[in-house]
Each structure stands twice: as structure tokens, then as C-alpha cells.
Amino acid sequence: MGENKAKLMRGGVDMLSFSKQLLADTGIQEIVVSGNDYQVPDLIADAGPVAGIYSVLQHYRPAAILALPVDLPLMTPAALKQLKTKGELSQKACFFQGHNIPLYLPNNTYVELFMSQAFIKNKAAPGSANPGKKSGPSFKALLNQVPHTCVVPDNPQILFNTNTPQQWQQAKARFK
Known about the structure:
MobA-like_NTP_Trfase, nucleotidyltransferase activity, transferase, Nucleotide-diphossugar_trans, single chain, magnesium
């Protein structure tokens, strides 16, 4: 993107605040932002977003996490509620078809085992082989190891991801 996606402005509010409001509107009472400049610093540097979830799990020990990236400017509370409800009822990781995140992730034995194998047992400094490159496990690797289900979103447009300036401009045209 070339700039911090959390600081991009959507209708007079930055994307981090927009995302936090989405979670609040979904009924999430404790909203935690992970990352070195936020509430929960990464326990393992340069290991990617799954490592951020690991850091939150280690710091808070929540019953579950509803992980939401800041680059989904068309996401809705209704869609997140659908995801959260399906995950709570099934007690499985839950995500939208074709997208590994947003992700409802129960903190259960499967998740603990995956995180232990990925981060605790293999604590050989992630990133040391390829400096500057994220080296932690992917969401796909996580989901291959934990029971999961996927939800077909009512409106697939909510999952429009903005990773480039061009995608951000397309999204801005949609929410004006």
C-alpha cells in the first residue's frame, strides 16, 4: 500500500477506528489491537498476523477472538455477527468462503497445540533466514490444523480487500 492502512480515512474516520466500531457494533466488548505500536506488542517479531493472534492469546487468554484486519472498508456489523454466531454455535474456527480473515477463533486445545508448535517449540527467531520478510505461519496453515467451518457471505462485496492504492480508490468510490 505504501502507507499505514490503519490511518487511511473512510468517511472522516481512520480505518482503525472504523474497524473497532464494527467490532463494537457486533457486540464485542473488549477490543484489542495487536502490533508493536498498539496494545499488545508482537511477542515474535516479523512473524505475521497469526503471530499477532498468538500474542493476544498469550496476553489476554480470551475464550475466543474475532480477528478483523483494517483493510476491509466495506465490512458490515451484520456480516461479522453472522460469522461470530456461527463460530460460537459450532465452537470451530469460522471464516468467510474464500477468505481466511475475518476469523472467529475459539481458544481451544486445537488452537493451543497449533500455536505451541508454531511459536513455542520452534522459537528459532522467525525472520532470521530472510531478514525483512514475514516468516510466521499463515492463516491457511492454522486452518489446516484446527476444526473449522466457512460461511457464505450474504454480500461478497463486504470482503473487498484494499492492499493497493488502486484498490483503496475503488473502495472509496463504493462508500461515498
